[in-house]
Amino acid sequence: MFSETVELRGHIIDSLILPKVLDEILTRGANFKIDEIKIGQNRVDQSYARIEVSSPAEETLNDTLLRLRQHGAEVLEKAAVQLAAAPSDGVFPDDFYVTTNQRTVICLDGEEVEVQPAIMDCGIAVDPAGKTATAVRFHEVRNGTQVVVGQKGIRVVPVQRSTSRTDEFEFMATSLSSEQPKSAAIRQMAREFTRARADGGKTLLVAGPPVVHTGASEHLENLINAGHVDVLFAGNGLAVHDIEHALFGTYLGVDLHRGAAADRGHENQLRAINAIRRAGGIAAAVDSGLLQKGIMHACVQRKVKVVLAGSIRDDGPLPEVITDTVEAQKAMRAALEGVTVALMMGTMLHSMATASLLPATVKTLCVDINPAAVSKLTDPRNFQALGLVTDIELFLRELLTNLSTAANGSAGSK
């Protein structure tokens, strides 16, 4: 029988970490014995548990310990992190450690070094001399780079529930169901936007073409002009459809006011792309007066950081679209500094790509008419993710109303 002893510290009861750990052990076919447990007597008190994990197979035990680390479990015996050199550019050594989006710390020469940034699906490159640990993707690895391998010397610090006050966002993220009033969730989203702005945090918006064809573009334009969006991630589609609507009043040739196809409307998308390319780009089109309204116009005017990532389906594309996916990913990662709230609407794949780049501490709001999209982007065990199945136009309209009410209330109280 193979065994190891692990420790859990923190708010392991109210954050449901202890039951998750015990469930992982049983699910993996291992056994557990709780050697010691101390439960905090007050809301702010931390708890402690020491658990012996055992299994007849060493491979099963190692796999179980790997899963437990993601919940913050520490192997009792402290060990230094293991490093191996990358065999060539773009290739990790065998058994390299794969990161999560939780805060991660490694033990290097007897000291704890935090891995930066906290994003998932990366390896950890270590500079022993500089005592730094960096989450890197394949294209960032160079021959000889020292990379963390195995599971020793790694500590994951999972996000825990707030104890200083009742966090309404956490409550709704773990209890919201389709039967509950959506207005309550939207009011809470508005509070998160307001709080992020007041605390100096940035708000990220990830949006797809449905924002335009549901008639919600005007609401989003107002949201941007009100200063509630700092960063926008989108594809060529959102920008093209927004510009087509701004220039011709159509979406893929359909008049959004009449709901009917416009005469020769099928040409409008390509004519819109051509007009922007002739102007030299979106910003140049705004500066020249060609583009006088719309989402892209508002982003230029409000100096919102925009990253447009291309795909094989794109028409054009627009000059600002980054067609190299690796370069687009780099640009997205660079734009995330300081982001504390992320709103994702009407684009499942783009939202999933963004979610993989976000630290677990970022509060994520997912809005889509498709329940499958919302379920993929929210995890009921994640206190930082809130999903809402509803029409985007209705959502943005009510969100703006709540933000306006909050702003007027703050102004009136001064």
Features:
14 helices, 3 domains, 25% strand, globular, 5-stranded mixed β-sheet, alpha/beta, Rossmann fold
Explain this structure to me?
The chain is α/β, with parallel strands linked by helices. It has three domains: 1-74, Alpha-Beta Plaits (2-Layer Sandwich), CATH 3.30.70; 78-160, conserved putative lor/sdh protein from methanococcus maripaludis s2 fold (Beta Barrel), CATH 2.40.420; 168-413, Rossmann fold (3-Layer(aba) Sandwich), CATH 3.40.50.10690. The chain has helices spanning 17-27, 58-69, 168-175, 182-198, 210-213, 217-225, 236-248, 268-279, 282-288, 295-301, 325-335, 348-355, 371-377, 392-413; strands at 2-10, 31-38, 47-55, 74-75, 82-85, 103-108, 111-116, 123-127, 132-136, 146-149, 154-157, 202-207, 231-235, 250-251, 254-255, 260-261, 305-309, 339-345, 363-368, 385-389. Strand 8 and strand 9 (132-136) form a beta hairpin. Helix 7 (236-248) crosses helix 8 (268-279). Mean pLDDT is 86; it is low at 168-177.
Topology (SSEs and partners):
Layout: E1 2-10, H1 17-27, E2 31-38, E3 47-55, H2 58-69, E4 74-75, E5 82-85, E6 103-108, E7 111-116, E8 123-127, E9 132-136, E10 146-149, E11 154-157, H3 168-175, H4 182-198, E12 202-207, H5 210-213, H6 217-225, E13 231-235, H7 236-248, E14 250-251, E15 254-255, E16 260-261, H8 268-279, H9 282-288, H10 295-301, E17 305-309, H11 325-335, E18 339-345, H12 348-355, E19 363-368, H13 371-377, E20 385-389, H14 392-413
Parallel strand pairs: 7-9, 12-13, 12-18, 13-17, 18-19, 19-20
Antiparallel strand pairs: 1-3, 1-4, 2-3, 5-10, 6-7, 6-11, 8-9, 14-15, 15-16
